[in-house]
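Entry under discussion copied across for reference:
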Amino acid sequence: MNRMLYQDCIEACVECMNACNYSYVSNLKQYEIESLRECIQLDRECADICAFAVQAMTRHSPFVAEICKLCAKICEACAEECGKHVHTHCQDCVSACRRAAEACRAVYEAVAVYA
């Protein structure tokens, strides 16, 4: 496996995890919390799967491809939901989620070739 590919994905996932955690906490402080319910849930899910993907890549888990595939799917869902909201932290989350999704898809596709 291309070590640089893992490193790019790890960095993207850490950035996404941090953006999602910040968005999660910031959303909890909003007055319109009811309208942010889905965004809050997806922020949490996305941060968790990104952290798990980083762990899987750093220990060279045999399940990296599957984990990265799921991570990309959750990151895309989070980006889509956060994109519905005008808050700066939501928009920052969209960018980070899309970058992580792209990096995770690249790892998934590369690992699938070697399998």
Q: What stands out?
A: The radius of gyration is 14 Å.
